[in-house]
C-alpha cells in the first residue's frame, strides 16, 4: 500500500512534545489528551480554491481525524462520517463519490471473505497534491513580505548595525 510521502520536520523531531505543550496552552490539557488532528493551514484557509464546500471540508476533517499514522490509512465508515457531521449517509456517499471523481480522495475497498466489505480506506493524496502549490504560493508571499519589510527597515535606518570605532 503506497501512501503520500511524509516530509520530516526537523524542529519538531528534536522535541515532539513541544508542539503538544504549546497546543495545551491554547486548548487545554483535557481536549489535547482526548485527541487532536493536524491539518495544514493551507487546506483550511484555501478550501474554496481547492473546490471544497463546508460539507466536503467536514468529511475531510473526519477522515483526517481518523488518520493517525502516515503509513496507515483512515477507514471511518460512511455512517460514522454522516453521524459526525450531521448529514444523511446518502449525502456522505454522494460527496465521497464527488471528492473521488474530483481527484481529492481515493477510496480503497477492504474486502472480507464472503463478498462483504469493511469500511473503505481513504487516501488524501489528491487533496494534498492540490494544496501543495497553494502552500508554495503562501510561502513565496511570506518571503516577499519579509524581504519588503527588511528593505523598508534599512531605508528608514532601522536595519543598519551601528559601527563602533575604537
TrEMBL record:
Gene3D superfamilies named among the record's database cross-references: Winged helix-like DNA-binding domain superfamily/Winged helix DNA-binding domain (1.10.10.10)
Domain of life the protein comes from: Bacteria
Listed InterPro entries: WH-like_DNA-bd_sf, WH_DNA-bd_sf
A Pfam family of this chain: HTH_36
Protein name: Putative transcriptional regulator, AsnC family
Organismal lineage: Bacteria, Pseudomonadati, Pseudomonadota, Betaproteobacteria, Burkholderiales
